[in-house]
Amino acid sequence: MTTQAAIVFGGVDTHKNTHYAAAIDEHGRLLGHHEFPANDHGYQALLTWMRSQGQIRAIGVESTGSFGATLTRALTAAGQRVVEVNRPNRLARRMDGKSDQLDAEQIARAVLGQTSTAIPKTKSGAVEVIRTLRVTRAGAVKARTQAFNTLWGVMIGAPSPLRDELVVLTKRTLVNRCLRLRPETDNLVALHDDPARMLMAGVKSALRDLARRWKALDEEIKRLNRQLEALVQAAAPALIELHGVSTELAGQFLVTAGDNASRIHNEAAFAKLCGVAPQPASSGRTTGRHRLSRSGDRAANSALYIITIVRLRRHQPTRDYVDRRTAEGLSKREIIRCLKRYIAREIYANLPRPETDTRSPAVAATAA
């Protein structure tokens, strides 16, 4: 008699240096567990070990956007179905405790029980490059703002002749003027006997260094903006053509959807991902009540709000819709909520899709 291979569901608890894997069969019985290094050799060893347990149906991976990102890419490239599991069973953790082995086993059970079904982002295409550049630019913008705030604070406390000259200048003019400051000497110790001259030289030196820092960050941001604009226009030309959608907002929607936008089954799922799907809030005699969703990608929700405000001001069909809904008794807040939901549907329809759709024909037809 031939022995049929076991159906395996895997779970991986990811960390910085190691990943802990567990395998269970289709009946929930633990087949084994093992720890592997978090590198290419370890990923291959993990997959080989899990395949030795039987026929792999799916593998749950924790933190697919951080510690598990590289592992997710490796497993997907090997043809395995990967499921994103970000919150294992809290009740089981409270009752059984916490360890790498228990966490990996609970991740596998979440996949088996289909309490976790999300397909992770592939993070292997142009959208991942856009995401990386956006993160870099966000850090540069924050640092540039901090540099100018520091420069302004130093300038406000500068000696009167220098302060009076600089305080009336606009932002960029102030930075350019500070770039041209020439301290009497960079050796401040040499002016120790003359506190006034030492203070003036020290303040000028600090303002010049801060201006150089601001200028370098400003050039970095401009370079990143040019790269992002070219990438977004190449990746999503249809998205940019929509009214009120800039390259900045289009880049945010691309990052929200990921390289494999087909993982989002329909426009309702995308609306929920963006936090614009009303959530039922009925109880007892109160029926038909809904509340605003506070979950989802808040950056994408903010992008939808910006588009809504732009269209309220400059898009005649939107203004006509507002007039009609206002006549029906809806408040401005309720109208904006409806508009965000409609815009989310429009954004989803114009998201770029990969040429090969891995979903079933029924699901793909529904999304189309």
**Given the C-alpha coordinates, what overall shape results?**
extended
Count of runs of 4 or more consecutive helical residues: 15
Number of domains: 3
Annotation, overall tally of beta strands: 7
Largest sheet: 5 strands, mixed
Radius of gyration: 28 Å
User: Could you state the order of secondary-structure elements as H and E?
Assistant: EEEHEHEHHHHHHHHHEEHHHH
Q: Mean of residue pLDDT?
A: 89
Strand order of the largest sheet: 3-2-1-4-5
Write the layout of secondary structure elements.
Layout: E1 7-14, E2 18-25, E3 30-37, H1 40-52, E4 55-61, H2 69-77, E5 82-84, H3 90-96, H4 100-112, H5 126-156, H6 160-166, H7 171-179, H8 195-235, H9 237-240, H10 247-257, H11 267-273, E6 279-280, E7 290-291, H12 298-314, H13 316-327, H14 332-349, H15 361-367
Parallel strand pairs: 1-4, 4-5
Antiparallel strand pairs: 1-2, 2-3, 6-7
Helix pairs in contact: 5-8, 5-10, 7-8, 8-10, 10-12, 11-14, 12-13, 12-14
Molecular structure report:
With 368 residues, the chain is of the alpha/beta class. The chain has 3 domains: 106 residues, 2-Layer Sandwich (Nucleotidyltransferase, domain 5); 110 residues, no CATH class; 119 residues, no CATH class. Helices cover 56% and strands 10% of the residues. The chain is built from 15 helices and 7 strands.
Could you provide a short overview of the structure?
This protein is an alpha/beta fold and 368 residues long. The chain is 56% helix and 10% strand.
